[in-house]
């Protein structure tokens, strides 16, 4: 067994072992109640790995492996969308106003990204020499682009609006964001370069990114929730607690 | 092939933003005094004057079209900077409101909800106002309606913010006395 094969196996197996650790942490902290879709996604990823690894280990099951990979990939993509939806719901949970307006904006962003994804699939289908690999890469590339765009929109809008993230939610979004952005780059290149050597190299990068992503999830889920940051209260010396006084004082100050 | 490299560049850019946001989120702190200072630094009357349609009509009637366009651009640009800064102050207030929302004191928590909601509303309105004012900078001949909702929202947000300052703190870490 050469070093490349060993490295590939280590990078394939390790994140899934860590996903097992993540399941334990999610159960212990009862976070599966707050993030049921994310919990289902993690369990699904482990199950998918067991199935694919079993097929990979059986000699001559290459075709079955390919079919299983394609079938499980679609559900994995759907679950990731579910996780993003869960993250956005958690982010906007405290504001009635944002629940409506932000969700509407996110739907527009999703629609726009889907259109770009479909246009890319039509006009830049890539190298079709290895047909099913290229096909899977195109689907993955489109999904990664939409998901990465959505997560980026969530992170940027939260910063823009001054929304506070819970640590665990932020960790899930950050990990998934890093994973989807690496996926986007790698599947875009895989669509263009479908040779086996290139595919093997891109696989190494994708599994490495997955390892980083799972580590981020574990790190953020284990980290304690931040206490409210210390605030400097407006001095309560005179009768400035009256709204009217404050407004008058503010206007006075502004006139100078 | 070009599409692939463009997507790689987009992905790297996205990755860079994600890492930046992650690092910044670890170092950012909420400071009520800073938010109040930000609000104090905004002259609401000056802003109201800049977006007043009566003033605009007066200038339109008394200046040559060329001069009017020049003045209108300057006024719109100044108003845009006000709106932008009001939006930034609103974002800081939203953070404070959310921190107060998590207070065990029900009064502070209720005030926090109000501050956050008003701040979010103001932030959203400033986005609309900025776009509107940017259009005026580009197309100064466009007849512009006044922006009273933004001004009203600003004042409502300021009021709720100052109301928050009335409640004595029992939660360590959320509110600190002046001498601390």
Structural summary, described in words:
The complex is a heterodimer of chains A (256) and B (180). Chain A has 256 residues and is mostly helical. Chain A is 79% helix and 1% strand. In chain A, α5 packs antiparallel against α6. Chain B is 77% helix and 1% strand. The radius of gyration of chain B is 21 Å and the shape is flat. The chains are: A mainly alpha (256), B mainly alpha (180). Chains A and B meet through α4, α5, α6, β1 and α8 of A and α1, α2, α3, α5 and α6 of B.
Question: Which labels suit this protein?
Answer:
heterodimer; A: 256 residues; mainly alpha; B: 180 residues; 7 helices; flat; disordered C terminus
Treating each run of at least 4 consecutive H or I residues as one helix, how many helices of chain B?
7
Q: What's the rounded overall pLDDT mean of chain B?
A: 76
By secondary-structure content and strand pairing, the structural class of chain A works out as mainly alpha
Alpha-carbon distance between the two ends of chain B: 61 Å
**What does the average pLDDT of chain A come to?**
81
Helix share of residues of chain B?
over 70%
Assembly classification: heterodimer
Question: Greatest interface and its residue counts?
Answer: A-B, 58 and 69 residues
Assign an overall shape of chain A.
Answer: globular
How much beta of chain B, percentage-wise?
A: under 5%
Largest sheet features of chain B: none
Strand element count of chain B? 1
Secondary-structure element pattern of chain A, one letter each? HHHHHHHEH
Order of helices and strands of chain B: HHHHHHHE
Instruction: Please tally the β strands of chain A and state the result.
Output: 1
Sheet with the most strands of chain A?
A: none
Strand-pairing-aware structural class of chain B:
mainly alpha
């Amino acid at each position: 067994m050469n070093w490349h094969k060993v490295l590939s196996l280590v990078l394939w197996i390790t994140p899934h072992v860590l996903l097992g650790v993540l399941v334990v942490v999610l159960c212990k902290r009862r976070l599966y109640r707050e993030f049921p879709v994310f919990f289902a996604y993690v369990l699904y990823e482990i199950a998918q790995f067991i199935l694919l690894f079993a097929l990979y280990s059986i000699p001559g099951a290459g075709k079955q492996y390919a079919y299983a990979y394609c079938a499980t990939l679609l559900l994995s993509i759907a679950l990731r969308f579910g996780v993003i939806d869960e993250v956005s719901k958690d982010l906007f949970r405290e504001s009635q106003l944002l629940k409506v307006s932000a969700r509407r904006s996110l739907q527009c962003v999703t629609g726009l990204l889907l259109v770009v994804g479909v246009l890319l699939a039509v006009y830049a289908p890539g190298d079709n020499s290895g047909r099913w690999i290229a096909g899977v890469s195109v689907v993955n590339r489109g999904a990664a682009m939409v998901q990465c765009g959505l997560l980026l929109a969530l992170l940027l809008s939260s910063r823009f609006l001054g929304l506070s993230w819970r640590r665990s939610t932020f960790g899930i979004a950050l990990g998934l964001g890093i994973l989807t952005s690496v996926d986007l780059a790698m599947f875009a290149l895989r669509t263009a370069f479908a040779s086996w050597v290139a595919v093997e190299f891109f696989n190494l990068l994708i599994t490495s990114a997955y390892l980083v992503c799972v580590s981020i999830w574990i790190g953020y889920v284990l980290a304690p929730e931040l206490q409210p940051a210390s605030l400097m209260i407006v001095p309560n010396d005179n009768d400035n607690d009256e709204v009217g006084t404050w407004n008058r004082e503010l206007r006075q100050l502004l006139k100078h | 092939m070009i599409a692939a490299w463009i997507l790689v560049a987009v992905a790297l850019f996205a990755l860079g933003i994600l890492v930046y946001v992650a690092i910044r989120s670890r170092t950012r702190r909420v400071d009520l005094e800073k938010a109040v200072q930000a609000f104090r630094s905004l002259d609401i009357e000056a802003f109201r004057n800049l977006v007043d349609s009566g003033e605009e009509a007066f200038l339109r009637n008394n200046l040559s079209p060329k001069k009017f366009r020049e003045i209108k651009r300057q006024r719109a640009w100044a108003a845009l900077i006000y709106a932008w800064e009001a939006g930034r102050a609103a974002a800081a207030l939203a953070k404070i409101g959310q921190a107060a929302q998590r207070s065990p004191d029900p009064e502070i928590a209720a005030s926090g909800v109000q501050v956050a909601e008003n701040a979010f509303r103001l932030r959203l309105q400033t986005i609309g106002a900025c776009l509107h004012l940017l259009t005026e900078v580009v197309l100064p001949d466009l007849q512009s309606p006044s922006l009273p909702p933004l001004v009203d929202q600003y004042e409502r947000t300021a009021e709720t913010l100052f109301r928050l300052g009335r409640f004595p703190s029992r939660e360590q870490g959320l509110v600190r006395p002046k001498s601390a």
